[in-house]
Write a structure and sequence with these properties.
Number of helices: 2
Shape: globular
Number of domains: 1
Helix content: under 10%
Distance between the termini: 22 Å
Length: 212
C-alpha cells in the first residue's frame, strides 16, 4: 500500500480475546476454539496523523472471525473517543482499520484486511483505566462494551501468576504482560468473553510498523 500520510502512536493497550491464556496466535498456531473474538482498548499518550495531534485520546477495536484471522471473513468495529474533533476522528478511523499503513505493518492493518465487513464507527465516551505492571484494567463504553483485566491466579493458592511474552517480531508489542480478561459487547457485534486471554502492553507503532 502506498502511504500518503505518515503517522505515529505511543499508547497503552489492554486486549481480551476468546483464546486460552497462551493464545496460540502468538505462536503461529490455530486459535483455541477454532474462531476468534476480541476486544482491545487503547490510551494514546502521544500520537499524530500527519499534522493532526492525537495525544490523550482513547479508542477501542473489536472483531470476530469464523475461523483463524488469516482466513478472513471477519467483522470489525471501532469506537472512537467522543472528545475527538472531526479531523481526529477521521485519523483514528483510518489508523485503526489499517488505512495509510504499509502492508502487514500493524495488527490494525491485518484486522482491517481480514474484515470485509466493517460496521459504522461509534463515537462515545470511553472510560479506560490500564496499569500494565499490575495487569489490571477497566473499560466501559455505555451501551457498547464492558471489559476488565486482572492477573491470572494460581488455582490452588490464589496467588498472582505473572507471565510475559517477549516478541521481537510482533507487529503489535515488544513485551506483553499476560493476564485474564472478561468482556461483554452488545449490539450487532455481540461478544461474551470470560476469564480468557488478556494482554497488557505499551505500544509504539507507525505507518511502517512497530518502532520498539
Amino acid at each position: 500500500m502506498t502511504v500518503s500520510v505518515e503517522w505515529e502512536v505511543k499508547a497503552t493497550e489492554f486486549a481480551n480475546c476468546n483464546c486460552s491464556y497462551g493464545c496460540p496466535c502468538q505462536f503461529n498456531a490455530l486459535p483455541t476454539h477454532g474462531d476468534c473474538k476480541y476486544v482491545a482498548a487503547f490510551q494514546i499518550e502521544q500520537g499524530h496523523f500527519g499534522g493532526v495531534r492525537l495525544d490523550g485520546l482513547r479508542a477501542v477495536t473489536m472483531g470476530m472471525w469464523p475461523g483463524p484471522i488469516h482466513e478472513g471473513k471477519g467483522t470489525m468495529r471501532v469506537v472512537i473517543d467522543e472528545r475527538a474533533d472531526p479531523r481526529q476522528r477521521d485519523a483514528l478511523a483510518k489508523i485503526l482499520t489499517g488505512q495509510e499503513t504499509e502492508d502487514m505493518a500493524t495488527m490494525w492493518w491485518v484486522f482491517g484486511a481480514m474484515s470485509p465487513t466493517k460496521l459504522p464507527p461509534v463515537y462515545a465516551k470511553i472510560e479506560l483505566e490500564v496499569d500494565v505492571d499490575k495487569r489490571t484494567a477497566r473499560l466501559e463504553v455505555p451501551g457498547v462494551v464492558s471489559s476488565k483485566g486482572e492477573p491470572i491466579r494460581n488455582p490452588v493458592t490464589g496467588a498472582e501468576h505473572r507471565v510475559r511474552i517477549d516478541f521481537p517480531q510482533s507487529f503489535e508489542y515488544r513485551l506483553g504482560e499476560i493476564a485474564s480478561g472478561t468482556s461483554q459487547v452488545t449490539g450487532p457485534l455481540a461478544i461474551d468473553l470470560k476469564d480468557s486471554w488478556g494482554l497488557f502492553a505499551h505500544l509504539h507503532l507507525s505507518h511502517k510498523g512497530r518502532l520498539n
